[in-house]
Structure formats: C-alpha cells, structure tokens
Amino acid sequence: MKLILLGPPGAGKGTQAEILSQKLGIDTISTGVMLRTAIREGTELGLKAQGYINAGELVPDELVVGIVKERLSQDDCKKGFILDGFPRTTAQAEALTASGVEIDKVLSLEVSDEAIIERLSGRRECKACGTPYHVVYKPSSAGDKCSVCGGELIQRADDNEATVKNRIHVYHEQTEPIKEYYKEKGKLVIAYGQEELADTTREVAKALGLEA
Ligand code: ADP
Ligand code: ZN
After folding, report:
1. Per-residue pLDDT averaged across 7-34, rounded?
2. Residue 119 is a catalytic residue
3. What is the 3-state secondary structure (H, E, C) of 121-156?
4. pLDDT (average), residues 96-125
5. Fewest C-beta in 10 Å: which of 52, 97, 136, 208?
6. Would residue 175 be called left, alpha or beta, if left means φ above 0 and alpha means ψ between -120 and 50 degrees?
7. Each residue of 42-97: pLDDT tens digit?
8. DSSP 159
9. Best mutation site among 28, 57, 62, 88 for ligand 1, i.e. most ligand atoms within 8 A of its Cβ?
C-alpha cells in the first residue's frame, strides 16, 4: 500500500501514520520528522529549513522534494510506505507524480480549525526519538518521559499560538488544493477526526477499507 496522509497541522496524522505503519508493516516517511532531525543535527538542510519552520511557513519545494525522492528510492519503500506531511503543495504533488511513484490512496484527515488550536497546545514530542504525544488525548504511559525510549517530552518550537495560526492559514492556502488534485485522479478518501483517538483510528480504517 502506497499511501498519502493529508490534513491540517495537529489533525493527528503522525499518530494515525504510526498505527497504520504497524498494521500494514510499512514505514512512515514524515517530512516534518526528517526536517526536525536535520535541524537537531545541524545539517545544511536543517540550517536552510529552520527559519521557515519556526515562522510556520513551508520549506521550499525543491528542498523537500529532494529528500523525499531520495528516501523513496530506498529498497524498503518498494513494499509500500505512508507519506505523512508530503506532498504539501500542488507543485510537490506534481513532482511526486512525475517521479513515477504510483500512489494507491490519499487519506484526508479532516479536523476543524478550532479543534486544531486546542490539540496543538497540548501536543508534546520526545526530544530523543520524536514519538508524538498529547497531554490529554495520547499521554505517555511513562508519565513525563517517552514510553518508547525514556527521552524527555518537549513542546515543538512551532506549536506556539502565532505560528499555529499561520500554519493553519498556509494549510488552507497551499495544501488543501491538493485534495482536488487527487480527487480528480480518483484516489481521495476522507476520514473525520474524532475526539477520542480510538474513534479516529476506526474512521481511518473504514475510509481505507481495512479491518479495524
Ligand atoms: P504539522 O503537520 O503538524 O504542521 P509537520 O511536522 O508535518 O507538522 O511539519 C512541520 C513544519 O515542517 C511545517 O510547518 C513546514 O514548515 C515544514 N514541512 C514539513 N513537511 C513539509 C513539506 N512537505 N513541504 C514544505 N514544508 C514542510
Ligand atoms: Zn523517545
């Protein structure tokens, strides 16, 4: 299964990607995680991306398209993958199509703007391994430490209110048009994000025609 997860920031894409990844036995490729790793490691890509991310703007297409193509060319992607956070502009979607990658389905995870603001304010992630948490919806079983690796849980620099508002704006302006692009190709399916994580997971499975 070659799958794209679309949706506004904080829709729960990362969490659903992780669940689907285990269910389907394929890797998640998250451009957000790749970019934050690059920033943490101080690579050239990280230095270029940092300013855009902290302002809630998109990183330029050519940078992101480059890292995704490189990742998709690796052997383990042949059996399938989940793209989380890519494509995010019509130009990125077109670049993906042009690279010859055949996508099976594009799942749009829909959440209202009001819900996004509430979710992002409670969002945390492991400083060491990047596993996502939410203080209310997905607390760590290890308290204030990561249940996977024991790392420290932190709030992302771009989850502050001003940046969040800009990210929502950017989503509607630049990313939402992609839905139409894939709808025309007959690939688009929609799931509505629910208050409870397990309910969202069920909606996602239903939309994809998987067993819950
Ligand atoms: P969210 O979906 O919650 O906004 P992500 O981790 O997917 O979080 O992305 C965080 C930031 O990384 C984005 O606001 C953007 O600046 C950058 N980014 C991630 N993926 C892309 C992409 N495909 N194109 C451009 N910028 C991206
Ligand atoms: Zn961790």
Report:
1. 93
2. no
3. HCEEEECCCCCEEECCCECCCCCCECCCCCCEEECC
4. 93
5. 136
6. alpha
7. 999 999 999 999 999 999 999 999 999 999 999 999 999 999 999 999 999 999 99
8. G
9. 88
| Euclidean distance between CA atoms 32 and 177, whole angstroms | 20
In the predicted model, is pLDDT for residue 187 greater than 70? yes
Average confidence score pLDDT of the chain: 93
Q: How far is the CA of 1 from the centre of ligand 1 (A)?
A: 23
**Distance between CA atoms of residues 20 and 23, nearest Å:** 5
Q: Whose CA is nearest to atom 12 of ligand 1?
A: 32
Token representation of residue 179: 């839905």
Residue 212 banded pLDDT, cuts 50, 70, 90:
low
What confidence score (pLDDT) does residue 196 get?
Answer: 85
Please answer whether residues 88 and 66 qualify as being in contact, where contact means their C-beta atoms are separated by less than 8 angstroms. no
**Is position 202 annotated as part of the catalytic site?**
no
Q: Which residues contact 40 (CB under 8 A, 6 or more apart)?
A: 46
